[in-house]
Amino acid sequence: MTFLYRLTITSALALSLGACATVDQKAAFDGVRTTIGARVNQDLIWRHDTATDAEVAAKVDALLANEIALESAVQIALFNNRALQARYAEIGIANADLVAAGLLSNPVLDIMVRPTTNPASGANLEFGLAQSVLDIFMRPARKRAAQADFDRAQGEVASAVINTVAEVREAYVEALGARNSLRVVEEVYAAADASRDMAAAFHSAGNISDLQWAEEQALTEDTAALVDDAKLKAVETAEALAALLNVDASALKLPQQLPALPQSDPSIANAETTALEKRLDVAAKRKAVTARLETLRLKTSWRLWHEAGLAVSAERDGDKQWAIGPTLSLSLPIFDQGGPEVARAAAEVLQAENELKNLESHVRADVRTALAKVETARRQAERYNKTILPLKQDILRLKQERYNFMLIGVFDVLVAKRDETSAYMNYVNTVRAYWLARAELANAIGGAPIETPSTANGEKQ
């Protein structure tokens, strides 16, 4: 009876462990916030019920009521992006798997009734209560493997948040850049249209040739085509941003101009090392390696034992005498000794390790490329702002003076005006390239927030 007593105590303890298991999804999702840390200033909400949906809708409406700044667009996406919400659900799945890994399999109750040929003696009754012993012993190793997989899932979801933030930043810059470019192209068209009207009058008076008149018309029509292209680009970029924010593009109140360049670029000491330390996708890959190693240890340690059960059986015979005793069942590792499972787990470890090394190599390249793009875009924007645009403005001013003294014709002035506007459009494109490079750099080093000047640099210098 001592053995049965111990078995009863063990079973009771196992049942109590299973009864205490709960799936706390809120705490699991809070872990994503902790993992992200200071990389994102905005709040995260997992929309998993009607009340949360209503709360998010109110917050999104409040943000949409005002002009959308860069980080406001990021906040709307973190609240509203459905692809990201789908990734949040991965935390719930992994958390449920983690809790399940700590549970024991349910005991199995067997009842057998065997009638006898003697009606007076009654039927033979047999009861059996069985529990997998291997399941109990494997529980700690199984929990370690599930915990490593849960950590990996948390890292991957946090990395998805950072990637979404980067996508929104790039889409926002593209949308503002397209709107800014459209304004400039419309100015170019206005100048070309004025030149065509003047050319029409001159042609009617016989002051310009048919060739010059045809050239003016062609230039105006070419510019009109550029306006159409710019309008389409503005629509495409606004719709792309709206899709990331999961709102209607007509609800977006965007600034007309790109932000000005900041006084200086971010100083990042040991940028490649910093990226490898802070990048969440790298951390997730490292956790994937750990998870695969834990799985390999589990498969290696228990490869010979597929099933092991301990049971208590009780039998009442026809004389109504009870026989009670334990039963142990083991699967003999004769045909399947776990070799294929171990080999598979070892290959998965090797795969995860190589994926990590490949990602680290790409991260270093991403950081170097992003730094070069930021430096080049700033250099080009400053060249336009400090040199090219002032020169174009001086040329326009000097030609205007010469025109006032009737030394040159009005068409020379209009050409100078078109050249100045074209140079400004190139400047707008370099500012757009700069902010895209800044967004790329922020993502490359782990998703740091982007500080933008409070004033826009939409006016010509």
Which sequence of strands runs across the widest sheet? Answer: 1-2-3-4
Low-confidence stretches: 1-19, 454-461
Kindly provide the name of the CATH class.
Mainly Alpha
CATH architecture assignment name: Up-down Bundle
| Overall number of domains | 1
Mean pLDDT: 81
Could you tell me the CATH topology label.
Answer: Outer membrane efflux proteins (OEP)
How far apart, in Å, are the first and last alpha carbons? 95 Å
Structural class: alpha+beta
What does this structure look like?
It is a single chain. The termini are far apart. The chain has one domain (2-106, 140-305, 358-444): Up-down Bundle (Outer membrane efflux proteins (OEP)). The chain is built from 11 helices and 4 strands, in the order H-H-H-H-H-E-E-H-H-H-H-E-E-H-H. It has helices spanning 2-19, 25-36, 50-64, 70-80, 82-101, 133-204, 210-245, 271-278, 280-301, 339-404, 410-444; strands at residues 108-114, 124-132, 308-316, 322-330. Strands 1-2-3-4 form a 4-stranded antiparallel sheet. Strand 3 (308-316) and strand 4 (322-330) form a beta hairpin. It is α+β, with helices and mostly antiparallel strands and 461 residues long.
